[in-house]
Amino acid sequence: MKAKSLHFSKNGTVQPIASELGREFQCVCDQIPPAYPCEGEKVVFIGVDMKGKVPTPVVNFCRDLNPTRTKNVAFYLINGKASDLSDLKTELENNGVHMVDDVLELEVKSSFFKKGSVTDADIQKTLKWAKELLASKVK
User: Domains in the chain: how many in total?
Assistant: First the structure.
């Protein structure tokens, strides 16, 4: 299956999950903006470390997506809410790209002096979510 695992995070929080998705589905794992554009992908997994709104590089990347680049986009968010993606979903759908409604929300706690990091449980939860998406919700 043609897939790509992309991530955006200023402090690298999402990278371990994106790497594991890439390993599990034998696909390219890259940061946003990617070194090579998406071409003919069935699904693009996008992991984003949120701070209240969708980061500008993610918005700009998604604006360039169209059905020849990918048919589906699936988001997993760290410290974000699916409702934060409503404007982006409208834009993707207008471009002819299906955004999967089942957005995975993960909470990663951090302290004032130390950044948070994902746990093995977070990685396993994401892998389970991705497998279920591919089995039933990807067009």
Answer: 1
CB 107 within 8 A of CB 116: no
Q: Please write the tens of the pLDDT for every residue from 62-105.
A: 999 999 999 999 999 998 899 999 999 999 999 999 999 999 99
Which of 60, 49, 50 lies closest to 18 in space, CA to CA? 49
Provide the 8-state DSSP code for 101: S
> Which tokens belong to 131?
């497998």
pTM: 0.91
Q: Report the CATH number that the domain containing residue 10 is assigned in CATH.
A: 3.40.50.360
- Token code pair at residue 33: 């903006």
Q: Which domain holds residue 131?
A: 3-136
CA–CA distance from 66 to each of 30, 46, 52, 73, 87 (Å)? 19, 15, 26, 11, 16
Q: Look-up: residue for tokens 């790497």? A: 19
* Distance in Å from the first CA to the final CA of the chain: 13
pLDDT tens across 25-57, in order?
A: 999 999 999 988 899 999 999 999 987 789 999
